[in-house]
Design goal:
Elements (H helix, E strand, L loop, with lengths): L2 H11 L4 H8 L3 H9 L6 H11 L3 H5 L12 H5 L9 H16 L4
Helix pairs in contact: 1-3, 2-3
Protein name: Helix-turn-helix domain-containing protein
GO molecular function, one term: DNA binding
Keywords: DNA-binding
Length: about 110
């Protein structure tokens, strides 16, 4: 998976439009389109903004299959904030998805 694939996969994972990802990266939606088609590669500054927004490493975007290295093993961490409450795996997954959504809406 190339940088182009990683960027598209990340955008789809967080259910973002190219315009929304462009705003996060500080570029135009045409630039995001060019990244996803492999016509151009993002500059390091844009990669850093994206990585910071989603709490991932820059290498997850740059390296081959980098997004596949991201694990979703955070339920235990999140569950620590709800000490004493019993959530099913499905409920925790839903909470995490909502947390990702909220995080994706942050402004720089």
């Amino acid at each position: 998976m190339s940088i182009a694939d990683n960027i598209k996969k990340l955008r789809e994972r967080y259910d973002l439009t190219q315009q929304q990802l462009a705003e996060i990266a500080g570029v135009t939606n045409k630039a995001v389109s060019a990244w996803e088609t492999g016509l151009k590669e993002p500059r390091m500054g844009a990669i850093e903004k994206i990585a910071n927004r989603f709490g991932i490493k820059k290498s997850n975007i740059i390296e081959e299959n980098g997004l596949d290295l991201i694990t979703d093993d955070k339920p235990e961490t999140l569950a620590a904030h709800f000490d004493g409450e019993d959530y099913t795996k499905e409920e925790m997954d839903e909470i995490l998805e909502y947390a990702k959504y909220i995080k994706s809406k942050r402004k720089d």
